[in-house]
Structure formats: structure tokens, C-alpha cells
Design a protein that fits this description.
By secondary structure, the chain is mainly alpha-helical. It is built from 21 helices and no strands. It has one domain.
């Protein structure tokens, strides 16, 4: 029980620091180090060094490469071209597909990018500000728990010891439920529209994403090596300038993101070596699914940052609950972080579209409830 109490103290400290606007990486580091000192005493430094292994290096490099290739694509105007290609489907379909596709390219401030790109589409559909905010925000995140290029997915894969693309075997019901929930609320909003600028050739700019996923699914090559190969090819084919290359590298080497990854591995190592997993398992016996969901939901709604929330959740739960319960943890952190008022994407999207939080929240809350119910239905249908 002592280990669980120390873990709760560390989590509370992390939450307080993040609410005080302390850098997320530093907040995690302080909380993890406190837990390490309380549990392991003066052995804490030796255990920290043990966390620096090939798995951590692979995850950090994968993070950097994902952000790099995404930034190069943005700088080369690929995201705009992709939306022009999607416009061939018509404004109503593009309004939903565009943020979803742009969401496959995780990038810092990505919600702002997708908001700017989809604004002309929404204008043609005469949507209200809260409707624009909801559609862009919700559909941009439907694959957050599944897509292998998402930072949080990469981090969780490193923590539980698997490849990012294999996380989908735990989480596939969530995006299905999320898309259905989003469509139920969004379709009535999509009214008469005007003609949009369209160019089917824009879909060609999706080739880096298609290449990465195809190679990951058809080969046993590590995601890191696939990203290296695809990044080199894209830089050469797109004739990336030195200025663009430098800008993409600068964003890819984001110290906060790198620190979050490193600290997540250190925190996970502290927890693995301690007895907290055994203690939690005995406490949660028979309630693993519910408690996994609840812990993850609370962490998600309090922190509001997908990668940090997922890292913290699975640092705690990876050694405490069986793998078949992971789906409930993913569902909790997914719905929780989307409902969080501190979610950077929500803040940026509300600001961009000049909408109001209460009007936007009613759609997000309803979608969150529907997603939970539909996910549980799919779990019962296919797993029980």
C-alpha cells in the first residue's frame, strides 16, 4: 500500500505543477524523481541510468523523425494540396475527411494548421463557429489512440515493448466508435454548400504516409528505419531547401517532447522495479477495467496533453493490469483528454474560429458519451 500512496503523491504533484503552467517535461521529471526517491532512496540514480536503453533511444528517434517529416510536408504545402484533392469528394464529405486526414500528420500546433486549411470548406457550408470548432477538433483526433505516427502511441509502444502499429490491436474499437459518434452529431450540421477549389492530383501528396504505413504492415522493419528511409526520400523528391530543412529539424528537436519521452521511460522503470504493480493489482482485483478507465480518464482530463497523459497512464498501468484491460485505459485517456479545458488543440481551435466554450462543449460531451457507449458495445460484441 505504501508504494501506491507514494505514486498518488507523485501524480498529485505532477498535476499541480502542470496547472501552475510548469513545462510538462519538467513537471513529469519532478514527479518521477520524487517517486523514485521515496521508493528507491539513494539507488534512484542507478535505476535512472538503467532506463537509458535501446528501447528509449528507438522511441526518441521515432518521435523526432515523425515530427520532422510532418513539418517538411507542411512547409512544402503538402497539407493544402491534400485538402484540395479531398475536395473532389464534395464539401460535406471534405469537411469531415480533411481534419481526419490532417490528423494523420501529427505536428506541434496541428489543430491550428487543420483549422486554417478547413476554414474555406466550412465557410462554404455556412457552419456556425461552434460547429466549425467541434468538427475540426473531434475528427482531427479520432485516430489518436491507434495511428502509429501519433506521439502518445509511439510512447506507449515503447513502454509496453511493442511496435507502434501493433497498438491498434488493443484500440481499434475506439476510432470506429469515435467516427460514428462524430457523424451522428455532424451530419445534421452540414447544410447547402458552394463549389470548392479542387484538384485530384493533391492526393498524390499523401504518398509519404501511405509508404510508412504500407512498409510497417507488410514488413518486420522497425518504424524508426521506415521513417528514416521515407524522410530521406521525401527531402530528395520534394527538393527541400536548406531553410526548410533547418526549420523542420528545429521543430523536431523540441526539448519538451524529448524530455517527456525520456522521463516516461524513467518513471516506467521506477514503477517496474517497485512493488506498486503487485499492490495495485491486489487492490483492483475484479475491478481492473473500471479502475483503469477511471485513472486514465482523470489523468487525461486534468493534463489535457495526449502524449503526457498516455505516458503517465501506461507508466502506472503497464505492470499493474493484464493486456486485455488496456482498451479501457486507452478509452479513458481518449475521452478524458478531449474533454480537458487545457487541451492545447481545443484552446487553439476555439480561438481560431472565435467560438464559445459552452456551445462547443455540448457537442464534445455528447460525442464523448456516445464514444464510450459504442466502444463498450464493440468490446462486448467481439471480446466477451
Amino acid at each position: 500500500m505504501q508504494s501506491v500512496i507514494y505514486l498518488i503523491i507523485s501524480m498529485v504533484l505532477i498535476f499541480i505543477l502542470i496547472f501552475k503552467k510548469v513545462n510538462a517535461g519538467i513537471a513529469l521529471l519532478v514527479g518521477a524523481f520524487l517517486y523514485g526517491i521515496l521508493i528507491h532512496g539513494f539507488k534512484v540514480l542507478n535505476i535512472m541510468l538503467e532506463a537509458f536503453d535501446l528501447s528509449m533511444l528507438n522511441t526518441v528517434l521515432t518521435f523526432i523523425l515523425v515530427i520532422f517529416i510532418t513539418e517538411v510536408m507542411r512547409l512544402k504545402g503538402a497539407t493544402v494540396k491534400i485538402v484540395e484533392g479531398l475536395n473532389m469528394l464534395g464539401a460535406r464529405i471534405t469537411a469531415i475527411i480533411a481534419p481526419l486526414v490532417i490528423g494523420l500528420l501529427p505536428m506541434p500546433g496541428g489543430a491550428y494548421v487543420s483549422a486554417a486549411i478547413t476554414k474555406p470548406v466550412f465557410d462554404k457550408l455556412n457552419l456556425r463557429p461552434e460547429e466549425e470548432t467541434y468538427i475540426n477538433y473531434w475528427f482531427r483526433h479520432v485516430f489518436t489512440m491507434t495511428w502509429p505516427l501519433v506521439p502518445g502511441v509511439i510512447m506507449v509502444a515503447g513502454i509496453i515493448g511493442t511496435e507502434p502499429y501493433l497498438i491498434a490491436r488493443y484500440t481499434w474499437p475506439i476510432p470506429i466508435a469515435s467516427i460514428v459518434a462524430g457523424l451522428i452529431l455532424s451530419l445534421p450540421m452540414l447544410r447547402t454548400s458552394q463549389t470548392l477549389r479542387k484538384d485530384v492530383r493533391g492526393l498524390v501528396y499523401l504518398w509519404p504516409v501511405i509508404t510508412i504505413i504500407t512498409l510497417a504492415l507488410l514488413t518486420r522493419i522497425s518504424m524508426m528505419y521506415i521513417l528514416i528511409l521515407t524522410s530521406i526520400l521525401y527531402v530528395m523528391i520534394s527538393r527541400t531547401s536548406y531553410r526548410e530543412f533547418k526549420e523542420a529539424i528545429k521543430r523536431a528537436l523540441n526539448p519538451t517532447i524529448i524530455m517527456v519521452v525520456v522521463v516516461a521511460f524513467i518513471f516506467s522503470k521506477f514503477i517496474q522495479i517497485s512493488s506498486v504493480g503487485t499492490e495495485m493489482f491486489s487492490i483492483l482485483k475484479g475491478l481492473e477495467a473500471f479502475i483503469s478507465f477511471l485513472i486514465s480518464f482523470i489523468i487525461g482530463i486534468v493534463i489535457g496533453i495526449e502524449s503526457v497523459s498516455m505516458a503517465l497512464c501506461f507508466s502506472i498501468l503497464a505492470t499493474s493490469v493484464p493486456a486485455q484491460v488496456y482498451i479501457y485505459a486507452f478509452l479513458g485517456v481518449y475521452v478524458g483528454h478531449l474533454l480537458s479545458p487545457s487541451h492545447p488543440c481545443l484552446v487553439m481551435t476555439v480561438e481560431y474560429y472565435k467560438s464559445e466554450y459552452p456551445k462547443t462543449y455540448k457537442y464534445i460531451v455528447l460525442s464523448g458519451i456516445l464514444t464510450m457507449l459504442l466502444t463498450i458495445f464493440l468490446i462486448i460484441l467481439f471480446y466477451v
